[in-house]
Amino acid sequence: MLIPTDTKFQDASASTVTDMLREDHKKVKGLFEKFEQADDATAKQRIVETALAELEVHAKLEEELIYPAIRAEIGDEDLMDEALEEHHVVHGLLGELKKMKPSDERYDAKFTVLAENVRHHIKEEESEMFPKAEDCEIDWEALCSQVVKRKEQLLAKGSATSKHSPDRASKKK
Q1: pLDDT at 173 exceeding the cut of 90
Q2: What is the 3-state secondary structure (H, E, C) of the chain?
């Protein structure tokens, strides 16, 4: 039996994880563009709600699984710390946006600032972190499996909570 000794086998698994993240990035950047083109407050609200849900799942995956695996091998503490600080800023904006209505004075501005922060974060991840991480000796196959499983859990939890969201309860009054 032949066991692969070159890095192609490792690269395939590494790119699976980073490709999943890149797909998430592409999705939220598309939502940001839709928001910028939307005229209707209801459409904007739907876009914001979708973007917030996507960003929360993505951030949890990075913070709980992906960043710890990368940090252990990448040898760039500053890059990893900066990424977490960027997440911290995004979490603050997410929390504020959740409490707002599209009619609030700075709703559009706050979402625009969120989009700018996330776009900056994506650029750094894709140009700096991912290339460095893909060269590391990480158990990409195990990480990929963990990420897929956790994402399924988070998405299932999200769809369950959206059925019982506070908005629905308040509309019944």
Answers
A1: no
A2: CCCCCCCHHHHHHHHHHHHHHHHHHHHHHHHHHHHHHCCCHHHHHHHHHHHHHHHHHHHHHHHHHHHHHHHHHHCCHHHHHHHHHHHHHHHHHHHHHHCCCCCCCCHHHHHHHHHHHHHHHHHHHHHHHHHHHHCCCCCHHHHHHHHHHHHHHHHHHHHHHHHCCHHHHHHHC
Where are the domains positioned within the chain? 11-155
CATH topology of domain 11-155: Four Helix Bundle (Hemerythrin (Met), subunit A) (1.20.120)
Count how many residues are written for the chain: 173
Quote the pLDDT of residue 151. Answer: 93
User: Is this structure's pTM higher than 0.90?
Assistant: no
Q: Give the pLDDT score at 15.
A: 77
| Res. 9: pLDDT tops 50 | no
Beta-strand runs (E) in the chain: none
